[in-house]
């Protein structure tokens, strides 16, 4: 399973990247706003740091302008994936940009039918939003499962990029179901290391190290 980091914060990306935990990065207008940086400038910096796909989202809602924006975004670096919303115009832009040979991430997916359309339009990635479905008492994981089944039934190569991940359990469940990629905030990825028995066990070892004055160096 690939790990993408859902942020435009350079330091956070660099920390995880140094550990080999970053297979790509996803950004969106809200994350760019949070960074306070210029979209082109910060996206270039991310692309210079990370080898894998870096999603940068268009701002337009009509296909023609989305395509023009996409063509400008892909000039930033070879690893740009143009992110377009799951609308009819977004699908048109997806088809044109993928036909041009660019990676496209179709975002704001909330149904399996939408995911089916994105695959038909040649999307490289489909981004189902798990947390936002859970927020309205629907089951985000059920959507990931449905898309996995449908894509496998017909051999679609579009990668399932589980997004809007809010907890370590979202990551675990996505891995169990077989999502190709998860994108999560750095804090959620780092929280995967936590376990109370690890802390308890380490405390006991540290106490014995002190009691027995165990030294290696
Ligand atoms: O990249 C988009 C997605 O991950 C947003 O997450 O938490 O704002 O629903 P969230």
Describe the structure.
By secondary structure, the chain is an alpha/beta fold. The protein has one domain (about 1-190): Aldolase class I (TIM Barrel). Helix content is about 50%, strand content about 15%. It has 11 helices and 8 strands. Strands 1-2-3-4-5-6-7-8 form an 8-stranded parallel beta barrel, surrounded by 6 helices. Strand 5 (about 105-110), helix 6 (about 110-120) and strand 6 form a beta-alpha-beta unit. Helix 4 packs across helix 5, helix 6 (about 110-120) packs parallel to helix 8 (about 140-155) and helix 8 (about 140-155) packs parallel to helix 9. The radius of gyration is 20 Å and the shape is globular. About 35% of the residues are buried. SN-glycerol-3-phosphate (G3P) binds next to helix 7. It catalyses: D-sedoheptulose 7-phosphate + D-glyceraldehyde 3-phosphate = D-erythrose 4-phosphate + beta-D-fructose 6-phosphate. One of its GO terms (molecular function) is transaldolase activity. It is found in: Cytoplasm.
The percent range for helix content is 40-55%
Instruction: Give the overall average pLDDT.
Output: 98
Low-confidence stretches: none
Q: What is bound: which ligands?
A: SN-glycerol-3-phosphate
Strand percentage lies at: 15-25%
For the record, give the distance between the C-alpha atoms at the N and C termini, rounded to a whole number: 38 Å
**Number of distinct beta strands:** 8
Largest sheet: 8 strands, parallel, barrel
CATH hierarchy: architecture? Alpha-Beta Barrel
Instruction: Give the domain tally.
Output: 1
Give the topology string: H per helix, E per strand.
EHEHHEHEHEHEHHEHEHH
**What is the CATH fold-level name?**
TIM Barrel
Per DSSP, the total helix count is 11
């Amino acid at each position: 399973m690939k790990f993408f980091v859902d942020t435009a914060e350079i330091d956070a990306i660099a920390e995880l990247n140094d550990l080999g935990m970053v297979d790509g990065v996803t950004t969106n207008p809200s994350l760019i706003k949070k960074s306070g940086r210029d979209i082109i400038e910060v996206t270039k910096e991310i692309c210079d740091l990370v080898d894998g796909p870096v999603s940068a989202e268009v701002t337009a809602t009509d296909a023609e302008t989305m395509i023009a924006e996409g063509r400008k975004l892909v000039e930033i670096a070879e690893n740009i994936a143009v992110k377009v919303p799951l609308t009819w115009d977004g699908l048109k832009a997806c088809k044109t940009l993928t036909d041009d040979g660019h990676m496209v991430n179709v975002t704001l997916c909330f149904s399996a039918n939408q995911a089916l359309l994105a695959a038909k339009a040649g999307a490289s990635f489909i981004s189902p939003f798990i947390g936002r479905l859970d927020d309205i008492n629907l089951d985000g994981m059920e959507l990931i499962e449905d898309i996995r089944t449908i894509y496998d039934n017909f051999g679609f190569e579009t990668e399932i990029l589980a997004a809007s991940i809010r907890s370590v359990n979202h990551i675990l469940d996505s891995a169990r179901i077989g999502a190709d990629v998860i994108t999560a905030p750095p804090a959620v990825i780092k929280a995967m290391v936590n376990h109370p028995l690890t802390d308890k066990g380490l405390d006991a070892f540290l106490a014995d190290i002190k009691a027995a004055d165990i030294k290696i160096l």
